[in-house]
Amino acid sequence: MIRGSCLCGSIRYEIRGPLGPASHCHCSMCRKAHGAAFGTYARVRQGDFVLLSGADDIASYPSSPGIARTFCRKCGSTLQFIRESRPHAFALALGTLDDDPGMRPSMHIHVESKAPWFDIDDRLPQHVGHP
User: Fold this and answer.
1) Exposed, middle or buried by CB within 10 Å (0-12, 13-18, 19+), for 126?
2) Which domains are delineated in the chain?
């Protein structure tokens, strides 16, 4: 089990299953949603995600056709990247984890949109889009 929460602590959750692969996304929407050089996400099966508190504080923004991004309406913490076409899983913003997930990101994606002021200097594979 892995625990997580938003910045203000209103939204609390548990993940009761394995995380899928994690990646650092450099697309302009993830950068803006996180207010950082990139957003780091991992896939979570819907059935493994248990919301413990804060359901009324989760807001959603349709960032692209078929894509919703959720966040805490109190503190603004980015939570999920949800594809309409994948109803059984979503991408979770790993910055909201309270526990060590026991895995590390394996790649950088959408590096064609990376912030010009940020240099990727690790050895992870870099992909122009999403592999």
Assistant:
1) middle
2) 2-113 (2.170.150.70)
